[in-house]
Write a structure and sequence with these properties.
By secondary structure, the chain is α/β, with parallel strands linked by helices. It is built from three helices and seven strands, in the order βββαβαβββα. It is elongated.
Length: 132
């Protein structure tokens, strides 16, 4: 039995730490960069799993590099991925975030991708009913 099942946004984030915001039409070197899973439901499920709750994600991911990363990231943190519908030929929901050191702010540019809407299977419906 899963304690928590989550349905909703799951985003492949690329985070760049920058010293300050660049002026338009220039280049700037980031101080660091990393990929991470993001989005409200994904963040909540990973947090719940880290706290010892049995969590599962119900949703649609693409079979592209972003979707593959997201599925593996869930698995890394112990979130059940057996209820994910992986689709070929679609683009993942992805974002690029600038994390600015001097102003302690973030700027996000996102591409919502083109994944189809979730259509619940019988197994997914049962998982929702069975969650505590």
């Amino acid at each position: 039995m899963r304690g928590i099942v989550g349905i909703g946004a799951c985003v492949f984030d690329t985070l760049y730490s920058i010293p300050s915001y660049p002026t338009e039409d220039t280049k700037m070197r980031a101080t660091s960069s990393k990929s991470a899973g993001g989005g409200p439901v994904a963040t909540g499920l990973v947090a719940a799993s880290k706290l010892g709750e049995k969590a599962a994600y119900i949703g649609v991911l693409s079979h592209d590099s972003g979707g593959t990363f997201l599925k593996q990231d869930f698995e890394k943190y112990g979130v059940d991925t057996s209820l994910i519908d992986v689709k070929e030929g679609y683009r993942s929901f992805a974002s690029v975030l600038w994390l600015c050191a001097d102003s302690a702010t973030r700027t996000c540019v996102f591409d919502k991708g083109d994944l189809p809407a979730l259509s619940l299977s019988d197994e997914q419906r049962e998982a929702i009913k069975g969650a505590s």
